[in-house]
Specification:
The structure is a homodimer of 278-residue chains. Chain A folds into three domains: 72 residues, Winged helix-like DNA-binding domain superfamily/Winged helix DNA-binding domain (Arc Repressor Mutant, subunit A, Orthogonal Bundle); 32 residues, no CATH class; 159 residues, Glucose-6-phosphate isomerase like protein, domain 1 (Rossmann fold, 3-Layer(aba) Sandwich), CATH 3.40.50.10490. In chain A, helix 10 links the parallel strand 1 and strand 2. In chain A, 53% of the residues lie in helices and 9% in strands. With 278 residues, chain A is α/β, with parallel strands linked by helices. Chain A has a five-stranded parallel sheet, with helices on both faces. Chain A is elongated. The first copy, chain A, contains 14 helices and five strands. The C terminus of chain A is likely disordered. At the A-B interface, helix 3, helix 6, helix 7, helix 8 and helix 9 of A face helix 3, helix 6, helix 7, helix 8 and helix 9 of B. The structure holds a DNA duplex (30 and 30 nucleotides).
DNA sequence: ATTGGCTTGCAAGATTACTTGCATAGCGTT
DNA sequence: AACGCTATGCAAGTAATCTTGCAAGCCAAT
């Protein structure tokens, strides 16, 4: 039985100090797992005896048992990214994959600092309302355009992947109207044609969603919905598409969930949600 | 200064028992970080006094200081995937992005159980030798084909992305010879035309590299080089391209590193390696 | 205002973990 | 064979951590 399950079982009999201690455990499980009863108690200004009693109340034989359970739940057993990142500096060539995976995980871990579910859902709703979705990407981001185009069409959405330059491009957006929307990708720098495209979308009243990296906030004009997070790799080096692809996947999953046609509201787990999709 | 750096500084003066203790720290940092000097010592059958002396030899004031340094390096401070995975069961819809990120990280963490640097480098060498690289993907993997095609062309490689069906496809591979190679993608099931394509490559002596998911080992015919790992998401649900994309990125980086034309051997860090690429 | 119950601090004692002086065993050299 | 040196175990002492009996303070009810 997990720590939190035990907490739930006795929740109605916890004293105010015990409730504060539990909050500390939830907020900083690592530090609690590695510290002492005194450490935990001092965080909320109570005596370590209170922490010891809490452990007993939760059903553990003593505080050490309580702390061992926290360690078991919150301190992972294997973590290649951390192992590499924290101990070795830049790896030798022998650690190529390890280093790559570590960087990807680090970037993914940071994603939620930049994008939250609310933003994802808001953008999803915009795309769901659209009659037609225009997709614009240049450079390596074209891979993401291919991916999201396929996902959206699989959901029954009408999409147009904007290709070509100048006149070709202009012709493709001629049919854009207020009931459409545009999804744009921008990473290293603002893509050629980004400005004119966004301005056109604005002028016809079409909503815009942009998925971007660190350059996101400086794009002009700003999109109606900007979903951005720094990508793995340093600014002037090789950068991967893992983070923006996670944003795309989150967007698509959110659309699938919000889509009334699919009657998804009754589903309870993401697994079940995903089962009905793709 | 990290634990391993300190270890390196005194490596030549470590006793046999101390060397064994260090190996335990490297192999199981979590357990050492959470345990006692006695725990560590008993792992190799020595007295805890030896562990205490090792800590002093490494420059820490005592064993507690040594253990605190191990905790600092190996026990992560924030870990969204673990936090969610270990405490809550399947999340409510409010945790969409958290769950997605957690699954991606879990899958990435497992990647190295299936693919190692040796395999990546061997495949990279095959592609470096090729005069022309054929790229075959169907379905969502087309996004990966777009990506790797761009990366390879950016490296100056001659590529052909195989499109179309039947006769169109046959015409495109007409020029394939023993000095070429083919990169194939296969995920949910063996793609149509996979077998004929691979057989043709074999018959003209072209080397093959396949990037795959769980279906990898059952592909017929087998590729000369199979790089596969399970993707994020369950077998019958929404699966993402994060893991195969990491394999692609690893392959491309390895090619960049092995490419004699770029004179990469003198570079020491992955960062520097990446700087010269893209 | 009084009383009862509960929460939490205090402090003594218990337990656990670690350090260090000393001694022994083993190994290598002469 | 003898000797010297090093590594490591032992055990006593130290330090850290935790537990629990007792008591004080607070709060709610009467």
């Amino acid at each position: 039985m997990s720590v939190l399950e035990r907490v739930k079982d006795v929740a109605d009999s916890l004293t105010p100090a015990e409730q504060l201690l539990i909050k500390q455990v939830i907020a900083s499980p690592r530090d609690i797992a590695l510290g002492t009863a005194s450490d935990l108690a001092h965080r909320i200004g109570v005596h370590e005896a209170t922490a010891s009693r809490l452990a007993k109340k939760l059903g553990y034989p003593n505080y050490a048992g309580f702390r061992a359970a926290i360690q078991e739940e919150f301190i992972v057993r294997t973590d290649p990214a951390t192992r590499v990142r924290n101990t070795l500096q830049q790896t030798s060539t022998a650690g190529l994959l390890t280093d790559l995976v570590g960087r990807e995980m680090e970037a993914l871990a940071g994603l939620e600092s930049y994008v939250d579910d609310g933003k994802i859902i808001a953008a999803a709703r915009v795309l769901l309302k659209a009659r037609r979705i225009y997709i614009f990407a240049r450079g390596n981001a074209e891979a993401l355009a291919v991916l999201i185009d396929r996902r959206l069409r699989r959901m029954g959405r009408d999409t147009v992947v904007l290709e070509g330059e100048g006149r070709d491009l202009a012709e493709q957006v001629l049919g854009m109207s207020a009931s459409d929307s545009i999804v744009g990708f921008a990473f290293r720098r603002q893509p050629t044609h980004y400005g004119p495209l966004m301005n056109h979308a604005r002028s016809v009243g079409a909503a815009s969603v942009v998925i971007s990296g660190s350059v996101g906030p400086s794009l002009v004009p700003a999109a109606d919905h900007l979903l951005f997070a720094p990508r793995a790799g340093s600014q002037d080096a090789f950068q991967t598409l893992t983070v923006p692809m996670a944003i795309c996947n989150g967007l698509v999953l959110s659309m699938a969930k919000e889509d009334p046609k699919a009657s998804l509201q009754h589903l309870e787990t993401l697994g079940q949600l995903i089962d009905t999709f793709d």
